[in-house]
Design goal:
This protein is of the alpha+beta class. It contains six helices and 13 strands. The strands form two sheets. Strands 1, 2, 3, 4, 5, 6, 7, 10, 11, 12 and 13 form an eleven-stranded antiparallel sheet that branches. The protein has a two-stranded antiparallel ribbon with strand order 8-9. A hairpin with a 5-residue loop joins strand 4 and strand 5. The chain is rod-shaped and about 150 Å long.
């Protein structure tokens, strides 16, 4: 790499070389003159004049050399400044260009992501579809087919479960003692407690063959689960009749008692209890018979008590007797049966 200071040094060397050669020639000329002049006075005058001329020559040469060095140095400094300014401007322009490219890249990525989500939502009919497309994180997803958000459990039992009901201790407990219309449409918050809605359950569970899983926790006895090989909800004209398949799990089969029953709310009595409305007695709508073995839409047990039949309850046979499990956590979820 060639530097400005290298050019100056090289020039100084050439100048010195020329000065040295000229000086040598002049001295040789003077010596020859001395030898031939026999030290005549007029020759001495000429020698003095030659020496004076040489002195003036060296002074001019020194001045010219210094001026040249200053000029080259000044030019070098100016060049350095100009290069520095050019570099700064170039860096600024490159930064702007990089920011523009990154912005466009993010915009393209966002557009691709939106298009991907749209295409997925157009074809996905449930959480299992999403799971098979690579969406393996549990959480809230939007199903374009149904025009609604759903909660997906992508972790339990190989994932792909769509949660249709959830109960848990939250800052503000949701009131599940709701009317027929509220249960028809659904209510609550997917991030808290909710009921998906009977109209949705009917349409959803009739598009494919689904199975049901219930995960629940007793406040003292711990976690249980119950699995049913089929789950289907009838139309409103049938009272949203419940269709359950074969049971398996580590809890007592309490839900099969409600198989084939229509839904009952406090303002629409479809149960078989002749002396009143089960939903009114137990503070929550459900597929009651004469009334229940499992009641997952009951009152949340902020202070659990096995004597309070209005609490969220799953009756179990343990140690030779029937015991009410009082539940502090419940999730009811569905998933397509394998072909």
């Amino acid at each position: 790499m060639t530097r400005p200071e290298d050019v100056v040094a090289e020039y100084d060397f050439h100048v010195f070389k020329e000065v040295f050669l000229n000086t040598t020639r002049q001295l040789l000329k003077t010596l020859a003159h001395l030898q031939n002049s026999s030290a005549k006075s007029e020759s001495m005058t000429e020698i003095k004049n030659d020496i004076h001329a040489m002195t003036e020559f060296f002074e001019r040469l020194s001045q010219d050399t210094n001026s040249l060095k200053e000029s080259v140095h000044y030019g070098t400094e100016v060049t350095k400044q100009e290069l520095s300014i050019f570099k700064d401007e170039l860096v600024d322009k490159l930064d702007v260009l990089q920011q523009y490219i990154e912005s466009r890249s993010r915009s393209i990525d966002e557009t691709v992501s939106k298009l991907r989500d749209m295409s997925v939502n157009l074809v996905a009919g449930d959480c299992q579809d999403l799971f098979e497309m690579g969406f393996n994180a549990s959480g809230v997803y939007y199903l374009q087919k149904f025009g609604r958000q759903v909660l997906c459990d992508m972790e339990t039992d190989e994932g792909g479960w769509l949660v249709i009901q959830r109960r848990a201790r939250v800052a503000e407990q949701v009131d599940f003692n709701q009317s027929w219309q509220e249960y028809k449409s659904g209510f609550g918050d997917l991030e808290s407690e909710f009921w998906a809605g009977n109209d949705f359950l009917h349409i959803f569970t009739n598009q494919k063959s689904y199975r049901l899983r219930v995960d629940f926790t007793d406040y003292e006895k711990g976690a249980y689960w119950a699995h049913y090989s089929t789950f289907r909800v009838g139309s409103e004209s049938s009272g949203y009749e419940l269709d359950l398949g074969t049971y398996s799990g580590n809890a007592t089969d309490a839900f099969s008692y409600h198989h084939g029953r229509p839904f009952t709310s406090s303002d629409k009595d479809n149960d078989l209890y002749s002396e009143g409305n089960c939903a009114t007695y137990f503070s929550g709508a459900w597929w009651y018979d004469r009334c229940y073995d499992a009641h997952l839409n009951g009152v949340y047990p902020v202070v659990p008590d096995r004597q309070n039949a209005s609490f969220i309850t799953w009756w179990a046979h343990e140690e030779g007797r029937k015991v009410p499990l009082v539940l502090t956590e419940v999730t009811i979820k569905v998933k397509p049966n394998k072909p």
